[in-house]
Every structure is written in C-alpha cells, then in structure tokens.
Amino acid sequence: MKPLISIFAMLLAPAAMAQEVIDDPQWIYRDIDGTERAAAIFLSWDYRSVIVRAICEEEEGRLRLEYFPGAFPADAEPLVLIVDDVAMPMETTQETSGDPLALVGRLPATPALAEALQHAVDVRLDAPNEMGEPWYLERAEPLSRIATWCATPRG
C-alpha cells in the first residue's frame, strides 16, 4: 500500500507545482541583490520580452513601474494603474537614454495601495501600445508583494 501512495504522491506533486505557476504565468518575482529588495516582472504572452518591471523606490516610498513599449510618442499619455476599475494615474517620466526605452510610472506606496492590490481581481496598466487597450496584468500577485513590502514602514 505504501508504494502505491508514494507513486500517487509523485504523480500529484508536479500538478500542484504547475498550478502555482499557472496562476500568474506571465509574472516573475525575484530578489534583486540577496536582500529583501525584489523586482516583479511581467512578460509578453510569448515570454520573449519584458513589458513591465516593478520595484520599490524605498527612499522615496514609491512604487516604480517601468514600462517597455519599444517605442512611444514624445507626448505619450501618463501611465495609469487600474485596480478593479479604480484608475490610479501615475507620475510618468520618459527614459530615453537607456536601452530599451521606458516609460516610468510612480505611485506613493501606501497601505491603501498595498491592500487594494492584495485583494485585486483585475489589475491593468493603461499604457500606449499597438492594440490601443490596457495591458491585462491578471491578479498581479508579484506586483502586490512589491507594493506591500514598499508600504511597510521600517525602523
């Protein structure tokens, strides 16, 4: 009986791990430098390019989203984070000296933002793209982790 249970457990383990990956398949969450600092990265549908990179600007107490559209007009609209239909316009700047080019949006990292993202069902980023629609970021659990860490006071 024990060998049968062991075989059954081995068969179910990969399915359980795959389910964890399937929840937000386009998101990656990684430590930056071995400390508590981390980055949340949203990939294109084919995993070939980074669409958004989120980090905490700890000194300023802001959530920073770097959007990599490849190209954007000089008069690009500000980025807007949409959490369950609540639009949060971001302070947006253009970084044109790096490769790739980026639009950078910032929001104050508040407990209210962290809580909204923790309970979010639908997170989108309204940003210029060829489809003319917001990016659907799913539940964005890795983004929520960054926002929660960023909003947590440290002594």
Topology:
Blueprint: H1 2-22, E1 27-31, E2 38-43, E3 50-57, E4 62-67, E5 80-83, E6 86-89, E7 91-95, E8 102-108, H2 111-118, E9 123-126, E10 135-136, H3 141-151
Antiparallel strand pairs: 1-2, 2-3, 3-4, 4-8, 5-6, 5-9, 7-8, 9-10
3D shape: globular
Structural class: alpha+beta
What fraction of the residues are assigned to beta strands by DSSP? 25-35%
The level-1 CATH class: Mainly Beta
Computed over alpha carbons, the radius of gyration is: 18 Å
Give, in spatial order, the strands making up the sheet with the most strands. Answer: 1-2-3-4-8-7
Largest sheet properties:
6 strands, antiparallel
Q: What's the number of extended β-strand segments?
A: 10
At CATH level 2, the architecture is Sandwich
Average pLDDT, rounded to a whole number, is: 83
Describe, in plain words, how this protein is organized in 3D.
The protein is α+β, with helices and mostly antiparallel strands and 155 residues long. The chain has a single domain, classed as Immunoglobulin-like. The chain is 26% helix and 33% strand. It contains three helices and ten strands. The strands form two sheets. A six-stranded antiparallel sheet has the order 1-2-3-4-8-7, with helices on one face. A hairpin with an 8-residue loop joins strand 9 and strand 10. The longest helix is centred in the first third of the chain and has 21 residues. It is globular, with a radius of gyration of 18 Å. The termini are far apart. The N terminus is likely disordered.
Could you give a quick summary of the protein structure above?
This protein is of the alpha+beta class. It is 26% helix and 33% strand. The protein has a single domain, classed as Immunoglobulin-like.
